[in-house]
Amino acid sequence: MAHRLEALTPALTSCCKGPGYATPLDAMRNGPREKIVYLPCIVPPGFRENRHNYLATVDVDPQSPSYGKVIHRLYIPYASDELHHSGWNACSSCHGDASKARDKLILPCLDGDRIYIVDMGKDPREPRMHKIVETTDVQRVSGLGSPHTSHCLASGEILISCVGDADGNGGKSGFILLDGQDFSLKGNWEKPHSRVPDFGYDFWYQPRHDVMVSSEWGSPRAWKAGFKIEDIKSGHYGQKIHMWNWTDRTLRQSIDLGPEGMVPLEVRFLHDPDATEGFVGCALSSTVFRFYKKPDGSYKADKVIAIPPKSVQGWALPDMPGLITDILVSLDDRFLYFSNWLHGDIRQYDITDTRNPKLVGQVWLGGSICKDGNVKVTKDTERTSQPDPIFLKSGKRLEGGPQMIQLSLDGKRLYVTNSLYSSWDVQFYPEMARQGSVMLQIDVDNVKGGLTLNKNFLTDFGDEPNGPVLAHEIRYPGGDCTSDIWI
Q: Cα(400)–Cα(385) distance, rounded to whole angstroms?
């Protein structure tokens, strides 16, 4: 795909002055090195009575005296609101519009159903609250709840996916549309009275092919209470991806991934706006499916990566899945990265041939099967021994497993945090929930492939002034490979 991106770059880089970049390769080659990042920080359950969640600004400039430190905290007013993912009011999809500016961060609350609009333009190092879209308004206007992913649109509007309905049930999901000027609720994006999926989660759009893809998590009432295998058997979790008609805002096709595609979470088209294919990571099945457009205009999905479970003793189940919880694609569409939250590794695949991804990099960062832990691996088709624990530069043992990942624009650094969702953190990694999470940095070989932990970088959210917190998704001020879409 890189050769097609190459052809787009010269014609576009000099003609437009809107937010973001003309092409993915323009971002990769000409984007600045990240100096600060933003992360939502969640107070662990049981400690929220007098503490509030916040958006942290972290200094990641190696030349700065505050390298790796939290330099600002924007607290939100409602302690029950669990921040999770974020997006921008404008991105590269608006690059052709000089009147647009990337100056507001959109923060939907997975718990609480509010949407926070944060002003990042006045001082990017010290964000301030701009507006709060209240729970009652979100639920009244849309009938939906548990807002998750947000993406800006070329129209200047903001599209937000919702996992379930306003009462926390499955059986109905959809999308909220926000006005890009005053951030008022415009209603549901999907066509009125049209068919919608039982569950929502993530989405990505490709307007040149009049298509949007969305994925599924499960019933909010189920996952908010922690993971239970019975909920899988009862149908409270999803196993489908959905292809939407972008223009008509209707559900065109649902693709059932079957038992090998349980709980499809993060979903990505390739960055090339002409591409008709992408990938979705299926958490519980620990598989990656490639979805693609067929000659007849319909879409199909094939399993292209499978992480075998490990037979274990001393854990909740006899077989432990890898639990693929985040995936991303490099801006040149050459590498796919994903995290196995339970097994404890991050993997890098060469996807030059999208039908046959090749493993070219891997790094182990904690997880549930370290040799000094309580879990004994009795059968492992990939490793001959359990991985060693990781001790951070502070001397503290790394708890939890790698979860959210974000790649630098140039593809040379991968940032990673280890919190999934607070109730699941407590369930699977209680020591991490007690001590707080971390952000690490991985050095990436983006030529031949390869991943190595940068031992000189650490942001320890266990050292926060008001107590440990759980940091989640990572966002760059100028956009990144999971926020920006090209049209």
A: 19
- What is the spatial distance between Cα 439 and Cα 459, in angstroms, rounded to a whole number? 5
Residue type, 40: P
Nearest Cα to Cα of residue 185 among 151, 138, 136, 117 = 138
Contacts of 193 by beta carbon, 8 Å cutoff, 6+ apart: none
- Contact between 402 and 365 (Cβ < 8 Å): yes
In tens, the pLDDT along 289-342 reads 999 999 999 999 999 999 999 999 999 999 999 999 999 999 999 999 999 999
d(CA 85, CA 434): 22
In the numeric block, the tokens 């991968």 are attached to 414
Q: How high is the pLDDT of residue 47?
A: 83
User: How many alpha carbons lie under 13 Å from residue 171 in its C-beta half-sphere?
Assistant: 7
- From the list 349, 199, 206, the residue with the least C-alpha distance to 278 is 206
Residue with tokens 């008509």: 248
Q: Record the pTM.
A: 0.95
- Burial level of 49, CB count in 10 A (0-12/13-18/19+)? exposed
Ordered by start, the domain boundaries in the chain are 2-471
CA 28-474-396 angle, to 5 degrees, is: 120
User: What is the Cβ-side half-sphere exposure of residue 416, based on CA atoms within 13 angstroms?
Assistant: 34
Closest CA to 460 of 410, 402, 377, 393: 393
* Contacts with 85 (C-beta within 8 Å, 6 or more apart), sequence order: 40, 108, 110, 148, 149, 150, 472, 473
**Of 218, 108, 93, 199, nearest in space to 156 by CA:** 93
Say if strands 36-42 and 264-269 run parallel, antiparallel, or are unpaired: unpaired
**CATH code of the domain made up of 2-471:** 2.130.10.10
Helix (H) or strand (E) holding 267: strand 264-269
Q: List the beta bridge partners of residue 144.
A: 165
Cα–Cα distance for residue pair 24/485, rounded to 1 Å? 9
366, 402 Cβ separation under 8 angstroms: yes
CA distance 349 to 359: 4
Helical residues (DSSP H) of 51-157, grouped into ranges: 135-142
Closest CA to 270 of 214, 334, 325, 210: 334
